[in-house]
Amino acid sequence: MYDDILLPFDGSDGAMTVLYHVAEIANWADATIQLLYVADTTRESVTVVETEVVDALEEKGEMVLEDAEETLSTLDVDYRSDVVQGNPAPTIVEYAEQYDQDMVVISTHGQEGLSRYLIGSVTEKVLRLSSIPVLTARMQPDEQLEFPYEDILIPTDGSAGAAYAAQHGISLAASLDATVHALSVVEDSPLGIDVLSTLSGQDSEDASTDAVDDIIEEAEAQGVTNTERYVEHGTPLSEILDCIEAQGIDTVVMGTTGKRETDQISLGGVTEKTVRSAPVPVITVRKGD
Questions:
Q1: What is the pLDDT of residue 194?
Q2: How far apart are CA 106 and CA 135, in angstroms?
Q3: Is residue 143 part of a domain?
Q4: Which pLDDT value is given to residue 200?
Q5: What are the CA-CA distances from residue 177 to residues 144, 152, 170, 219, 225 (Å)?
Q6: Which of the chain's ends, N or C, has fewer CB atoms near its CB within 10 Å?
Q7: Same domain, 170 and 119
Q8: Start-end of H helices in 229-289
């Protein structure tokens, strides 16, 4: 399912922990990990791009990647390394598309380099711009990421974007023989409508039920033998987090667009809030135009 996985890497503790998780995925998928260090030549400290300054940034990147290379070598994982210059978010997206990567993996916590941007604009821009699935992992102290995934949560609102993301989640579940958990949320309040939007009253309940049924039917059609369905009332983020905890979810797969055009991932959106808050990896999938 994944032949080539792009891992932007800065050497931070968060990035190193995610490296082990990506190595597990790569071993399972027989994939190659593409390590990428972005020498950020747009930083204020690089007011004039002189040869010496750029060379220093690239040398630092090469040193940072050496640690990752040594780790992957000990784990017997195929890898490639590259140091490039540019603005981190668009550079990551363009690199992934240019070199036909199947997934981008980003740690949302780090101390320096690329990761210090990731909780803010870089992650948000990568998720919005990338036509390739993006796995984000929110690392906490003493936290471990589990693989293979046994329980995969797919939130849905029945939109084209949610259905497109669900296809990826279902394929992943089928490959791993995992359980698909389909969730749709009926919001009790018309305020704060984000990715998992609602209609009103019984129409909303019916729409949520239909959206969940569609995922379950598609999962069963693809050979997924274990499925669970949930139509809940509340706020999308709260219900997603509650389901993760109650059902022992290992990863969430969700779209970056919903029923409204303004549902593109942005500050405060459900997808972005989930990326920030979920204690498990979140795989976001953007439906193209």
A1: 46
A2: 6
A3: no
A4: 56
A5: 21, 10, 10, 11, 8
A6: C
A7: no
A8: 236-247, 270-277
Task: Dig out the tokens for 31 from the structure.
Answer: 């994939």
Question: For residues 124 and 120, what is the distance between their CA atoms, to the nearest angstrom?
Answer: 6
Domain count, the chain: 2
Q: Classify residue 145: in a domain, yes or no.
A: no
Are the CB atoms for 9 and 15 separated by under 8 Å? Answer: yes
Please indicate, yes or no, if residue 142 is contained in any of the structural domains.
Answer: no
Q: Position 146: which residue type?
A: E
pLDDT tens, 33-64? 999 999 887 765 454 555 555 667 788 889 99
DSSP state string for 67-119: HHHHHHHHTT--EEEEEEEE-HHHHHHHHHHHTT-SEEEEES--SSGGGGGTT
- DSSP one-letter code for 263: G
Query: What is the CATH number for 113?
Result: 3.40.50.620
What pairs with residue 83 in β-bridges?
Answer: 37
Q: Which residue has the tokens 């796995």?
A: 135
Q: Is the pTM of this model over 0.90?
A: no
156 and 273 in a single domain? The answer is: yes
Domain termination site, one of 83, 106, 137: 137
Q: What span, in angstroms and rounded, lies between the C-alpha atoms of 144 and 255? A: 25
Distance CA 14, CA 145 (A): 11
Tallying the residues shown for the chain, one arrives at 289
Choose the final residue of a domain: 114, 137, 160.
137
pLDDT at 16: 83
| CA gap 158, 210 in Å, rounded | 7
Return the DSSP state at 262: G
Q: Give the pLDDT of residue 192.
A: 44
248: left (phi over 0), alpha (psi -120 to 50) or beta: left
DSSP β-bridge partners for residue 231: 184
- Residues of the chain with pLDDT below 50 are 45, 47, 110-120, 191-198, 260-267
